[in-house]
Every structure is written in structure tokens, then in C-alpha cells.
Amino acid sequence: MRGRKMIQGRSRLFVVGGVACVILLAVAARPVANFAGVCVPQMRRLDRDEQLQHVYEYLKARNLQTARGVDGQIVEKVNNGFGYASYADFARANPECCTFSLKGPANLEIAPMRRLTGARRSFVRVEYRANWDGSNLSSQMKTRHLLISNCGEVDEITP
Prior knowledge:
elongated, two-stranded antiparallel sheet, 4 helices, 4-stranded antiparallel beta sheet, alpha+beta
């Protein structure tokens, strides 16, 4: 009888331990996937080309910046020299445009919590030939420092 109770106690302990492991895996799966660079909503990693396309779209959207005064008049118009008509044009003109790294300018690091949530994957150093009017490439090189998330959301580096 005593042996039977001992076996029942061990099986109960085994079941409780198994349930605890399943719960632990369920809780840890998302942060582990985020830390590994997986875009959790899509359940996949973005490849380099997809990341570069997101960088291109971000820079393209912010090429021409217009500041307006109180009365709506244009106070300042800034052209950032990113007049590429398409991602293919940009990639062709700048085949080595982007460097992805875990360290940013001045040795900035991504906070561990931002990596665990997937909000930040890496720093992106973008070097591209200026294209002021969309047709003529300049020899002038422009440099931008950005951040990218696991799902391709791009943002400026802010302290």
C-alpha cells in the first residue's frame, strides 16, 4: 500500500511539473521569439531585402519636409536628397547602402526590454548617393542612422 501511494505522489508531482513547464513555455515563447528577431504577428522573420524595403519607404516618405508658419505660409522646405523613384532604383544605385548592427552611433545599445517586445531589432546605418531631383545621382554621400523593429517599423534614433 505504501508503495502505491508513493507512485501516486510521484505521478502527481510529474503532472504538476509538466503543467508548470507548459505554462512557463507559453509565457516565455513570445519574448524569446521577439529576442530572436521574429515578427510575432506574422510568425516569421523579415529577410534582409524586406528590411531594406522598409528603410527605403521610411526615407522616401521623409524626403521632402515642409515647415509652415502660423498663417499656413511655407517657412522652410527641406530636400533630404532621397529622390529615388523606386526601391529597385535605390538598391541599384546603392548596393551596399545599409549596415545592420546591435550597436549604434556612439556605442548606443538597444535596451533589452525593447528587444524582448520586438519594438527594436537593430540599428541601421544607411549611406546613399544623394538624388536631389529623382533623375540625377550625385557623388555626394548622405548618411542616416535609424532603428528597425522585428516587423520592419523604422524610426529615427532618439536619445
